[in-house]
């Protein structure tokens, strides 16, 4: 792809991701103000169950459409086939979760109040699945503006509808879930209309039509299975965390509040800077898929090396910023300094966390999704086991340690696989030492500035 087009698309995706994550953090702050930290914990638990449904019907289809179109398969056949598969799975997932909603709410989440909010989310699954397929088409043709605008529209509608309904009904939790559903519907209507416009204008690629279903299974099945299993284990993990905190001595509200603080406040802040890298991860998938199909090994190595250097440099610098300004960040987003300790403890893992995300995208572009499946599944199993054993004994400190162990394990396996597939040599000075030294220098400069300016 033309470098100017690549950087333009990266800029669009980055700007969109930054706005989405900033507005998401602000909205979570608003939600926390309406329903409290324990309510935020309930909100996160319900969403974790809903995400299990999303992975069942949407995981892998966006990447599949991107790969198929980028590799020269017929556009309409590729999109239509993925839509049929995704919509079928979405109906199965929605029906299964609806039938099990009472059991999930009472036995797993621990409150009947979770039944209605969960059920309000379920009709959104077909819209999410269809939207994922169509977004894959736009990313394959290197158009990031349309899906970015769709996500911004969805976020605006979700927030606006949620706040409006909460004010009208006086039932904030249900209103926020209904706002998510309305946002998904509006987003799909927009992106479908744009897909038809582009298809009429460009005609779509008239490539290979045969064997599409087999390729969908080959590409999507490992990603879907891996995402589903990891989401299942993640949901199990999220349910076990409040239970483990209660066994450690916290009461019902206290355990939900600690869980809500970590998952609903701390982690979104830590993940926010990765918005600047998400475009790189997404755009590398079709780039590497094309290069891999054409046998351009040197191009793959060059792009992978650049991704390592950029990601590690950025993430080391972000680590220093978060450690120095943890108190200010907590006050800016949540009007509280309670998050500062957790932010400072978790900040050193950011280089591996961000790099793992970018490497995962590169592995998918190189047709290595089966390995990502194995790594993610084993990682999730380890996390569930450690949470079950350690949280009742050591509380929230154990959970932070588990996050470190998990990220080191997963990132190490993924990076090793990418280096093996690309036969890329590690540049210790350019990738690690230079960013680490720059980060240390930035830390001391920022600490001095903060002390002199007294903020």
Describe this protein's structure.
- By secondary structure, the protein is mainly alpha-helical.
- The chain has one domain.
- 87% of the residues lie in helices and 0% in strands.
- Helix 3 runs antiparallel to helix 5.
- The radius of gyration is 22 Å and the shape is globular.
- The mean pLDDT is 85.
Descriptive terms for the model:
single chain; globular
Low-confidence blocks of residues: none
Overall shape: it is globular
Described by strand count, sense and barrel closure, the largest sheet is: none
Distance between the termini: 45 Å
Number of strands: 0
Helix content: over 70%
Number of helices: 17
Task: Give the mean pLDDT.
Answer: 85
Overall radius of gyration: 22 Å
What string, H for helix and E for strand, traces the elements in order? HHHHHHHHHHHHHHHHH
Whole-number tally of structural domains: 1
Overall SS class: mainly alpha
User: What fraction of the residues are assigned to beta strands by DSSP?
Assistant: under 5%
Quick recap of the structure?
Helices cover 87% and strands 0% of the residues.
SSE layout:
Elements: H1 3-58, H2 61-70, H3 75-109, H4 115-121, H5 125-140, H6 145-169, H7 172-202, H8 212-248, H9 252-271, H10 275-293, H11 297-324, H12 326-334, H13 340-346, H14 350-365, H15 369-394, H16 396-422, H17 428-453
